[in-house]
Amino acid sequence: MTTWMTLITPILVILSITCVILQRQHLLMALLALEAMILALIIMMIVILSTSWSMFIIVMLTFGACEASLGLACMTAMSRSYGNDRLNSLSSNKC
After folding, report:
1. How far apart are CA 25 and CA 87, in angstroms?
2. pTM
3. 30 contacts: CB under 8 Å, gap ≥ 6
4. Does the residue 25 lie in any domain?
5. What is the SS3 assignment for 86?
6. Are the CB atoms for 64 and 35 separated by under 8 Å?
7. Best label site of 4, 25, 47, 94, fewest CB within 10 Å?
8. Residue 79 CA from chain centroid, whole number
9. Is 45 a domain residue?
10. Structural domains counted in the chain
């Protein structure tokens, strides 16, 4: 079981990085891709590392949850201010 998971998880990380690169205009899609990358890295750590690293894995999950909540808070503030979640609307000057 662990052999195919050690092959799949780096592919998941690479796919999530390419999704961030391709969907860089919308903040929600970038946040979802970053969350997928964090989860793939955690799965890879669970498969590769021993059980003595379980506290480090819990800390990584906590940081992933904090990253998701901060990203959603920024997206909510941006959608209330600008009316959308497109990142190119941040650089426009509205005088």
Report:
1. 5
2. 0.75
3. 20, 23, 24, 87
4. yes
5. strand
6. yes
7. 94
8. 19
9. yes
10. 1
